[in-house]
Amino acid sequence: MGWMADETGLEKCAANYVPLTPLSHLNRAALVFPNREAVVYGSHRKTYAEYHARCTRLASALAAKGIKPGEVVSTMLPNIPAAAETHFGVPACGAVLNTINTRLEPDTVGYIFGHAEAKLAFIDTAFLPTAEAALALIEGDGPEIIEVADPQAGFPATGRYVEYEDFLVGGDDGFAWHMPEDEWESISLNYTSGTTGRPKGVVCHHRGAYLMTMGTVVSWRMTLHPRYLTIVPLFHCNGWNHTWMMPLVAGTVICCRDITAKNIYNAIADEDATHFGGAPIVLNAIVNAKPEERRAFDHIVEVCTAGAPPAAATLAAIGKLGFNVMQVYGLTETYGHVTECVWDADWDALPEDEQAAIKARQGVAYPMMEHITVKDPETLQQVPMDGTTQGEIMIRGNSVMKGYLKNPEATAKDFAGGYFHSGDIAVQHPNGYMQIADRAKDIIISGGENVSSVEVEGALMHHPAVSLCAVVAKPDDKWGEVPCAFIELKEGASAEEAEVIAFARARLAGFKTPKRVVFQELPKTSTGKIQKFQLRKVAAEL
């Protein structure tokens, strides 16, 4: 028995144990940095004192509306100040934040409203038609809408709903925040593109979000007062938790509604943006920007890129423009990025193309994660770290989801063996760095958005001339990948490419619609399974 065997009187108490939550960051920032700029967007300029007060009024107004702890509040918002405020105000009343992808079609939005049992939804004026169409599709009441107008961007209030600023006025500055009693309480609910049609609801906890904010600061080598440009949509894994992180380092959130090269260059030059995250398509836009869209700046901009491996050529080109890019990797199920391609100074001596090839790897675990590696999906044994043996990326750590809402079977399956099964096929190099080889789930990643091939195939199968179809990723210079459909027509039937694309567009969000359609007999196995790997080869050469 050691001398610490008797721990009488050493129990947890309020003085020495506080449930971890990113809400604490904003409470501290309001006290320590009250006059620092917190959120900017055109003429909207708020200090930390003002930001905290607005989030407090939001929480109070929600509670006054009858929103109870554990209930879901949805949003359909671009990267505007209200999107940042809901990240604190919604959990500060005890509710769970459900940020909905603004690019989804009404059918999926309606499904999410219903599955999440959302009580209230903050909807940007531009997305009211989608939200209204979604509500028309669901049984029962659905969430009450609060309209978030954006007159600066040409979206004045319609007058049909209570507007966000009026809603805030009804809140109380003195409202006491509902802090979690248990850090395992849910903070957010994010729907991930389902591989079998319907998306799954990923439930995240306060502890994981808090630790994600802590780990990211270390990995991004952040010091106080970064100026963070919101390129990653705040509906993607809560903007990779970066908005929850900013008060920790007294940073400024620079809102960017429309993601264009011109707006990015302007934010760097005019707002002194120092950091942003984005998919490789964003890097391509910066590299390929027209001369008149570019602005001069004299600081290095730190960039995290994820969603699909960026082309080595893109990485080489953007480095010369004043951007330092780090490849990261993660999933909705891990709150965003959980691996990083940590740079070794010894690699600086390598030829440029070899450096770019290393930068395209997904890398090693972030500091807040416990263990991320590549295992054999059948045996759950570590694969040889030889750079050629394939396995599945497996993840263990506090920034892994609680599980899928109302889907214990899928949760148990993805957590088998004590690791989260990513579904991503990768190799591991001798230094432990992971590199994705393929997508196990046939997910197409287009401009950072996940596209389920199964969902697209389901839409195309409704076409009267289609007998069989298969959708695969076709490499694309702009989007990284785009959906490409291979169609076997019914005997005697005919169809045109443009007509099939229009048919799909009427049923799917734009980014899910096939950009090419090829009519041919589909290659099949002896049991009739379509051989997608053969179609990928054809698509790559189109």
UniProtKB/TrEMBL annotation:
Question: How would you classify this enzyme at the top EC level?
Answer: ligase
Q: Which reaction does it catalyse?
A: 3-(methylsulfanyl)propanoate + ATP + CoA = 3-(methylsulfanyl)propanoyl-CoA + AMP + diphosphate
GO terms classed as biological process = fatty acid metabolic process
Provide the alphabetized UniProt keywords: Fatty acid metabolism, Ligase, Lipid metabolism
**Domain AMP-binding enzyme C-terminal, first and last residues per copy:** 455-529
Domain AMP-dependent synthetase/ligase: where?
28-405
Decide whether keyword tRNA-binding is in the record. Answer: no
Stored CDD domains: ttLC_FACS_AEE21_like
* E.C. number(s) listed in UniProt: 6.2.1.44
Under the heading InterPro entries, the entry gives:
AMP-bd_C, AMP-bd_C_sf, AMP-dep_synth/lig_dom, ANL_N_sf
Q: Name one GO molecular function term.
A: ligase activity
Does the keyword section mention Flavoprotein?
no
Q: Which Pfam families has this protein been placed in?
A: AMP-binding, AMP-binding_C
Q: Which family does it belong to?
A: Belongs to the ATP-dependent AMP-binding enzyme family.
Q: What is this protein called?
A: 3-methylmercaptopropionyl-CoA ligase
This chain's source organism reads: Candidatus Rhodobacter oscarellae
